[in-house]
Known about the structure:
By secondary structure, the chain is α/β, with parallel strands linked by helices. The chain is built from 11 helices and 12 strands.
Amino acid sequence: MAETLLSVHNLKTYFYTDEGVVKAVDGLNYELHQGETLGIVGESGCGKSVHALSVMRLIPTPPGKVVEGEILFQGTNLLKLPEDEMRRIRGNRIAMIFQEPMTSLNPVLTIGEQIAEAVMLHQRLSKKDAWDRAVEMLEKVKIPLARERVRDYPHQFSGGMRQRVMIAMALSCNPSILMADEPTTALDVTIQAQILDLMRELQKEFNMAIILITHNLGVVAEMADNVVVMYAGRPVEHASVHDTFRDPRHPYTWGLLHSIPKLYERKERLIPIEGQPPSLIDLPPGCTFAPRCPFAMEVCVKADPPEYPVTDDHYARCYLHSEHATEEEKKVAVAAGLAASTRGRRV
Ligand code: SF4
């Protein structure tokens, strides 16, 4: 069994606003092992990015705060580390890339200066060695003429090339974990496939773990070993990628599978999930998905469902898998899960 790198236990990150308390992440659990890719999936605003910022300890405080939980990185609780020790982990042992590289790259410094600066800070290399490392990393992410391009500024690169530069910068310190927040969303489909291929290739070479944050189950199918599906700040299904696509158990996951865009289909054939996610300030008392769920039962609006085990490593937070559902309701659920998985298998 590969080493456990990161264990997130009952993570709760809230924002205290004039309108009320926004429960952006409300009880997230997972484990991440060396060399593994974990996909964290959900619509925008479901808490997946806030969770990443919580792990990196980048939540703006106030108004945000991690109010409960543990984030164990190789056994050390990151939430208890002094800021100077956290700085040695952030960008070094745990690196992050974002959807829009321009927000993370400094427009007035060359790419080489930016990579070299990160390497000098974390790895204590000389200026010359750090510069050589910048060239080497640009070669690794397949930037043509790396030795010359290292002197260019961010605006001189295309969107896809800038994302390659971000990956080069993130991996320059040889991190154990790469957190990638919608890394290909802004790119066209061909470039997206190239970036995903590159990430997979470098993951093998560096033997690192990846946390892939995305709204796109198609990207997860390509990349992930395990998947956490989030809805309204909470994990609603947790399974291997195989089970997520072959035997999905939560109605929200079924909705996501039906709404995966496919290249060969006309957009009108997608079945969107009806309705909007609830306000995170004013969550309904029962299951947060109940107002949008075609399978909602009486119990669903009364109390939040716990996680029900489907197998040893597959959980769904849904009463359809409990004694609260009748045999008939369970049958309907099996048929709906099958239809969703048939759709998912064609991704
Ligand atoms: Fe739907 Fe009820 Fe399951 Fe929630 S608990 S997803 S409302 S069936």
